[in-house]
Please model this.
Amino acid sequence: MCGIVGYIGPQDPKEIILSGLKCLEYRGYDSAGVSILHQGQFKRVRAHGKLGNLAEKLKSETFDGHTGIGHTRWATHGVPSERNAHPHKVGKVSIVHNGIIENYLQIRQELIEEGIKIESDTDSELIAHLLNKEVNNGLDLFSAVKAILPKIQGAFAVLAVSESEPDTMVAFKNGPPLICGINQKEFIIASDIQAIVSYTKNAMYLADDEILLVKGKEFQFYDFDGNKVKKEVEIIDWTNERAEKEGYPHYMLKEINEQPRAVAHALAPHVNLATCTTKFDDLGVDTTTLAKIEKVYIVACGTSFYSGFVAKYAIEKLARVPVEIDIASEFRYRNPILAKQCIVIVVSQSGETADTLAALRLVNEMGLPTISVCNVKNSTIDRESKGSLYMNSGPEIGVASTKAFTSTLTVLELFAIYLARVKNQLTLVDEKTLVQEIVALPSQIEVVLAYSKFFASASKTLKEHKGFLYLARGINYPIALEGALKLKELCYMHAEGYAAGEMKHGPLALIDKNMAVVVIAPQDSFYEKTVSSLEEAKARGGQIISIGTGEDKKLASISRHYLSLPKCSWLVSPILSVIPLQLMAYHMAEALGHDVDQPRNLAKSVTVE
Model:
């Protein structure tokens, strides 16, 4: 969602903050701004629209101070505009804020009754007003923060500075992430590692209900009651890949093409290549306990939810353990009843997804074993889960997830094999066969990526359809859902994913010559039934785009476009099948002239409800 960057140290804050905000563009935003110390006052510059608009305004601006804060805003309260952009400056105090203040209407009314003029439509400005009141009453900035904390409710990550203390910055959070990078007595505080990694590998993470006070060259963490908190510096082990598209026109296309490498990195920690067996060392639960589990719960949002849906099919078929999947925003509020002998897996690329984090905390309160699947080590979800798995796909900049999704599928399918072995549902011979098929995935993905040219050409006609119906059965059904989601995210077109067997129960009414029907139909036990459903769609004018196995003349004969995937097992079929759907959505979006890396209204990491 929104991006925060703050700097205090000997260098020029303008350049460091702008560079950091540039790293956070992928999160989605509609305006940007900075507030930097100059001649004893914080000079604020803001701009509506892209970061380039702000950079243009800042070209002629100079600053003699060494403290500053910056922000890219994604509208929640108040329309996108310069007036609503951050930082918010009230009197001596400037702040930037990620999150939502739930009781903002009450605070706003109280301030108005006191005769205070509110300049924006945002909830964030109110934090600046509250802090400025306390500073005017004689409190230092740190004490002012402690004083207002009981008055604000909701999710927030805030950086605050004051002209009364030009060498001081205070950060505090409850919900959205904040990270402090430390380098030679200078500090970069940001909402994402991406903004820090160019300057330092040394980071400290704010936990919920914590305050960070930076004063000159010194810093100290506190809890919300003002008690000192000890923290260790952690080393960021990501390489700085974020700034290079390596010749690709968009990050998303680069990341689609990185999937052979991403999948290889995802499987490497969990496969013994000598024996072709699975290994998991950091599950937070021993094999004896794992062998006794009676149910698996998988909780996630969006694309991560669909990866969990694929895992449900894999775990149930291989390990013979029932799996319940939940959308995190529903799970956290439905007062779930969980089996005592269970394990809960939460999936989040960023490791900061608000609803998924809330679900994890709910399960932790129940004392049940939890495993997180994240792409960001030391993210909040990673830190708070009892066991950890990693996508290992490297930084993913495009808002629409691609390589993180296939990496997640790889890790979860290997876990399904491992769980099946632990529960004595799989022989070593069968395990070896399945592992060999997953190990072969990177080279098979290379073959599928050749379809990029096909979709680049086909997109010129595909974009004319009024809507898209995605069909599949079995373990590929979640891939139909994911394919439809990708088209909605990137092309802003009507798209639905359905189990192919449900077509007669409503979707058939949608089909005519303007409706494209995208089907995943490998030659598995569902093949004949799926082809029969396609015959009905074709008879009603539906334009068939099919993804099958090898030289399938039958499927090709009823399809306007037929794509042949390498022959593979049912387990790896979803990973290969999703790639053509990613390419189709990408090329159609480009043909429509949309911003592929930053689709409208969407953010990479949803850190508030």
Notes: The chain has three domains: 3-235, 244-439, 449-598. The longest strand covers residues 165-174. Residues 403-422 form the longest helix (20 residues).
